[in-house]
Amino acid sequence: MLADNLEVVVALAVLATAYLALWRLLWGSQDAQEPPLVEHTIPFLTPLFGLSKGHPGYFPGLRQRYLNLRDSPCFTIRIPFSRFYVINSWELVSLIQRKSRVFSFQAVTDAFAGKICDLSDTAKNVLQNEAQAWGESDRGTENPNHAAFKTLLPGEGQDEMKRAVIKRLLQAAEDWVPKGQRSETVKLYDWVKRETTIATTDGIYGEQNPYRDPSVRSSFWTYADGLQKLVSPLPWLFARPILKARTHLAQIFTVYFQAEQHLHGSAFIRHRAAHYLSRGFPQRDLASLEAGNGIAILANTTPTAFWAAYYILSDPAARDACRAEILSHVSDAVDDGGNKVRTLDTTALKTGCPLLLSAFREAMRLRSTGLGLRMALEDHVVGGFLLKKGSTVFMPAAVQHQDPRWGARPGAFDYARFATTAARKDLFLFRAFGGGSTLCPGRDFATMTIVMFIAMVLVRFEVRPRAGRWEEPGTRGAGMTTVMPGPDEDVEVEIRRRREDEGVRWVWKVSEDRGHAIQGVEEGDGDGKGE
């Protein structure tokens, strides 16, 4: 009995000694000028329990758990060998974004590019050398991240992409309710995902779009949904289906580029391929990178389209207001055969439909969980706080999106919120498209693709829940790397063609669009050195 008690005492003494040693190490290495330390009940280990759940709500939830620090502009989290800084204040977010050469997103992407895209050492060296050269260059030098995406800006290249999107949507809409049927029952997320995936990628890859093949779409979603497993230890053991899907995508894009099918695609894919090949990228790596690029193209676009469609369709006031706004830009005519023709210039969706765009942004505001990652490349003081070299900086969009400046009920859907003068003044709080050097270069194209899809649904169809009432699904299954989570459960709906649409031929036009970008962040986030 005495021996047993002695063992317990020794074990407790060892634990206490280890705890005190970790405590001294934690606080002894914590600079007084760093942001307040949280999650330190068990030094270095407490944060691992929260992070291990892999849910994007972990970082925003810290403000709720540490009420005494709720108004603090930032926190420090310490795990073994790493520091995380969580930024809650827009003012600090803005300061960090202005220092893109100190707080680098490129360093984050370089760290994961090999695992996510399976790039060769040659390709990784190209990316790293470009990033290093840019970091050492004079102000005004183009960010290498931006160089490959500049053809996505509004102009003829993007107009060409939107015409391809419209062509696909017009064709698809004829089958949303098959001829001879009064209605069609679908699962809303599956339907939106299929239609926006094919339409978006038709706009990019052209008539030889690989994503028209259902097996390619299936491989892509297996790949995209498995990113956390892909970057975890031992992916060859725990992520075999994801690795197989990634290999399939790379093989498909190898054929696409070898057959020079991209030369018949958009200006964006032509420029992107030429950009990387001219810098020494092996063609094998170009295909692997393009497989990974699907994550940037689709992983956020399709769930955003779902939530925008869900919120607008489930809110009668939003649905009716957006529909009336779109129809106000539709012109009616009769062709030589006596058939009714309805025409819509899609540029009006951008310039003349503030409620539609407001509802779209509001859905993004409510559901975006982006973390705004950066890596500190040197010690730097921001707003009086020391952020140390080698640390990872998180800027959770959800914190800004629940700011009281959005109004009395920031957690509720208000389709007209962004149409008010006050909301437009506070648009800098809108973080769904990122900001600074990571402001999404494809935001205008993605926005127009989604609002064109929703507009086509609203003016031609009625969509009702099969259950009789709308039940908003949750997103508890979302991973920590998710920027826009999809729903945990799908919503079964019935689609009916509107009576006004019977016997109508639709013409959707894309007029020249120069310099009318849909804005994500209104102020210049750059540091004046070519972010």
UniProtKB/TrEMBL annotation:
Tell whether Ribosomal protein is among the UniProt keywords: no
From the record, what ranges are coiled-coil? none
**Lineage, opening ranks:** Eukaryota, Fungi, Dikarya, Ascomycota, Pezizomycotina
- Kindly list the cofactors needed: heme
- Cross-referenced Pfam families, in alphabetical order? p450 (PF00067)
The UniProt entry, under InterPro entries, shows: CYP450_monoxygenase_sec-met, Cyt_P450, Cyt_P450_CS, Cyt_P450_E_grp-IV, Cyt_P450_sf
Q: Per its UniProt record, what PROSITE patterns does this chain match?
A: CYTOCHROME_P450
Amino-acid positions noted as binding heme in the UniProt annotation, renumbered to this chain: 440
Question: Can you name this protein?
Answer: Cytochrome P450
Q: Which UniProt keywords apply?
A: Heme, Iron, Metal-binding, Monooxygenase, Oxidoreductase
GO MF, one term, reads: monooxygenase activity
Q: Which family does it belong to?
A: Belongs to the cytochrome P450 family.
